[in-house]
Every structure is written in C-alpha cells, then in structure tokens.
Design goal:
single chain, alpha+beta, 47% helix, 18% strand
C-alpha cells in the first residue's frame, strides 16, 4: 500500500449506511411486535387468578331462549361454555382454575367470580356477542 493512498476500509456510501439502518429498524420493529404478541398470548393462557370478586352481567339479549307451551326455557349452558372457552380458558373451575361462572335464571344474569382482568374480558366478550347479534338481526331484516 502506498503511503499517499488513503485507507478506504471503513468508508461506506451514504445509501449503504441508510440501507443498513433501515434493515436494523425493520428487524427491531418485527422483534418488538413478535414479543408483544407472544406476551399477550401468554397472558391469555394464564392459569392463576388474582383477588376475585363477584359481579353479575345481564344477558337477556344474548342468552338463547325458546318458547314452550308451559313457558319459556332459557338455555344458559351454551353461553357459559362459550364464555369459558373464549375468555381466559384455563382460569375457570371447569378447567381446574379458581374462577366460577353460574347462571341466575330469575333475572337472566350470569354471576361471575373472577379478578379484575377477567371481569373486563367477560364484559368485552359479552359486548362483542351483542354487536354480532345486532349485525345478524339487521342482516336478517
């Protein structure tokens, strides 16, 4: 190597540096998104329940009913199984957890004993069922 020739070992063009920075940013963004999705999945599959309290949810507009000659039959079991399958499934007593859900047929409510996060998810799930039922009713008309 000549003494007068500068070393170009660490010299890059600007577009090469920008390309490397773009790849790095995309890689870090993808890693973060994957980490957050994995964290959310892990929380959804949790088995432990925190401090529980009971709350009742009016489900008269969601629970399936059918008329009989002697009165009205309310079928809570499909709704309860649906909630237990879709809202923190490992926390319910039917799956070995501590949370409990039961029907109260007198005033068409579900009584849920769960922690704060569980109650928020049950309320959101019931609201989603209501929205779906409203959309189905509108489509049927």
């Amino acid at each position: 190597m000549d003494v007068k020739t500068p070393r170009r070992y660490w010299q890059f063009r600007l577009r090469t540096l920008l390309w490397l920075m773009l790849c790095l940013v995309i890689g870090l963004g993808a890693y973060r998104a994957g980490f957050e999705n994995g964290y959310a999945d892990r929380i959804n599959q949790r088995e432990e329940v925190g401090a529980t309290f009971a709350a009742s949810y009016d489900v008269r507009d969601v629970v399936p009913t059918r008329r009989t000659p002697t009165g009205t039959v309310v079928e809570f079991d499909p709704l309860i199984r649906d909630v237990e399958a879709n809202v923190l499934p490992k926390t319910w007593s039917s799956n070995g957890g501590e949370a409990v859900i039961a029907e109260f047929a007198t005033n068409l409510t579900l009584v849920v004993s769960h922690d704060k996060d569980g109650h928020e998810r049950v309320a959101a799930y019931l609201e989603k069922l209501r929205e779906n039922k409203t959309h189905q009713d509108l489509a049927a008309k």
